[in-house]
């Protein structure tokens, strides 16, 4: 069992190899939580759709604009890999996994995809990898 200090917004790291009857508990300082809350609040005010994924393409955050545009259910997709939620319809690869893998920015890229809820979307997006500690 994984215990996190915040539901669905900042999932705990993966811990599949823990021994039976062990639990992973994640502690963060209150300052870090406050910064995370302010950052998320700011992203909720943005009218553009924002999707944030970790290095394994698992979705960590969707702002309200994204939820409305893609018609996704956050509790169903947070923690899922991007590729399990979105499927390209134009024969191209998904941009988010490419940006993460190549650590490359993609600006003004047209994406045509469907969500796992069968919502077809045709957008122009900017995708930025966020690299921590130069990794």
Could you provide a short overview of the structure?
The protein has 135 residues and is of the alpha+beta class. It is built from five helices and seven strands; from the N terminus they run ββαββαααβαββ. It has a three-stranded antiparallel β-sheet. Strands 1-2 form a two-stranded parallel sheet.
Keywords:
7 strands, two-stranded parallel sheet, globular, 135 residues, 5 helices, 3-stranded antiparallel beta sheet, alpha+beta, disordered N terminus
Q: Can you walk me through this structure?
A:
It is built from five helices and seven strands, in the order ββαββαααβαββ. By secondary structure, the chain is an alpha+beta fold. It has a domain at 1-37. A three-stranded antiparallel β-sheet has the order 5-6-7. β3 (51-53) and β4 form a beta hairpin. The longest helix is centred in the first third of the chain and has 16 residues, at 30-45. The model is unreliable at 1-9 (pLDDT under 50).
């Amino acid at each position: 069992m994984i215990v996190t200090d915040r539901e669905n917004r900042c999932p705990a790291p993966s811990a599949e190899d823990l021994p039976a009857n062990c639990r992973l508990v994640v502690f963060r300082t209150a300052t870090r939580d406050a910064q995370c809350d302010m950052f998320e609040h700011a992203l909720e005010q943005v009218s553009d759709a924002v999707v944030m994924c970790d290095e394994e393409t698992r979705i960590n955050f969707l702002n309200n604009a994204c939820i409305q545009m893609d018609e996704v259910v956050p509790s169903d997709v947070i923690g899922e890999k991007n590729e399990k939620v979105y499927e390209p319809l134009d024969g191209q690869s998904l941009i988010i996994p490419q940006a993460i893998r190549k650590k490359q920015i993609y600006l003004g890229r047209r994406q045509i995809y469907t969500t796992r809820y069968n919502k077809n979307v045709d957008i122009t997006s900017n995708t930025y990898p966020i690299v921590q500690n130069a990794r």
